[in-house]
User: Fold Threonine aldolase from Candidatus Fischerbacteria bacterium RBG_13_37_8.
Amino acid sequence: MANVLLINKKNKNRLVFSDFRSDTVTKPTDEMRKAMANADVGDDVLGDDMTVKKLESLAAQLTGMKSALYVPSGTMANELAVKIWTHEGDEVILDSLSHIYFHELSAISIISRVLPRPLNYIDGIPNISEIENNISKPGPFSWKTSLICIENTHNHRGGMVVPLDSFKKLRKLCNNYQIKIHLDGARIFNAAAASGIPVTEFSRYVDSLMFCLSKGLSAPVGSILCGPHDFIEQARKWRRLLGGSMRQAGVIAAAGIVALSSMRERLGEDHARAKSLADEISKFPGICLDTSKIMTNIVIFKFEHPSITTHEFLQKLHSKKILALAMSEKEIRFVTHKDIYDSDIEKAILAFKRILT
Ligand SMILES: *Cc1c(COP(=O)(O)O)cnc(C)c1O
Assistant:
């Protein structure tokens, strides 16, 4: 992959590779770079960085949550939430393909020492009666279920939007059992753009919410954890403990402000491109893809070709200057984002055609 960087560096204005691996590859915009250069900064650990404060209050306002905290990564935001909502030995119900369970190196077991209870949220949607059957009550053999996690949009389940109704039902259940809900909303603004439902509607039904600035919103670094005031003050302490408090973080937070102010509106473009990519590639042999489930900027398909393996296919795409990611032995993910243009979609479709037919 080293040559990717080299080539990009030489041709600064034109990306030679069409990089569909993730929306995390988005480079900051010129407006972000200007804001970063001019950011008013201070020591955020001492509470002096006005740009970080501004970003946090903007995030709280846009999500409808009481308070917000700027953290280095989405993973840290999720891990802070689990840490604060649980005690050692508690159980956490989550989806078996969720980011928290599947992509965070068992961190909830290491940092919070909780027991994950993974269920299958088909299409990202929690099955309320199945969840109820899996709630542990305090007794001789278990502590208790103290947290349920939900992900919207759902990355590993193809960027699907979890409907608002699921949130309402889950809230009702959790109120009955006094269980907290954490929303991994890494791409919650994609969910809002695709469904027309504002983030403030989804957030009404959860206790905490995290989202990434560094994905489709295209900021270089950072995520935001949102929740009640006392929760955020505890999160601030645990961020420190985990080594995630930052000093003149306003330099990167400035890009986050631009991301929140001007990059949400264009997410629909990414969704339209993902849909047109999915519609075309689903016609080729070896691609198993239900295009009716493509709702946002993620396209995951099963690759089952009689003569080419997933790895070989990705290599062939690479030789045609197209990058995508293997999600498993037989699953490939394409993600659209601000640095993917119509011409990249056409290039990808042509490459599929050449390789597969
Ligand atoms: C990317 C992502 C995260 C974590 O983000 P990092 O900043 O890479 O740690 C968490 N949840 C979901 C659903 C994601 O897609």
Notes: The chain has two domains: 18-28+266-356, 30-262. Residues 267-281 form the longest helix (15 residues). The CA atoms of residues 67 and 229 lie 5 Å apart. Residues 1-11 have pLDDT under 50 and may be disordered.
